[in-house]
């Protein structure tokens, strides 16, 4: 039963993450390699994540995305209204929370499977 529940949670989270990834990337041009990895978020009212090469993922309130990297990177949370970002592992458990108005912070993206912005 636990395996089934875990698999269903992963499927639901994956579906939500795929929807958010498609919407976010298409609407905001979320990925960019023009920015230094540890630079502060240049997108107002957003959560920015980067990998070691400087590729960027941007989330706005209510958006979710599949974490596209592994290894070391950074995040910078500038979501409005005290917004936070929860980072989930493969099984759908929260493994990290980016507090409101914080960063840039170094992170190992390897255990992060998906992200969701809450505002």
UniProtKB/TrEMBL annotation:
Signal peptide: 1-26
Keywords: Signal
Superkingdom of origin: Bacteria
The protein, known as: Secreted protein
Species annotation: Streptomyces lancefieldiae
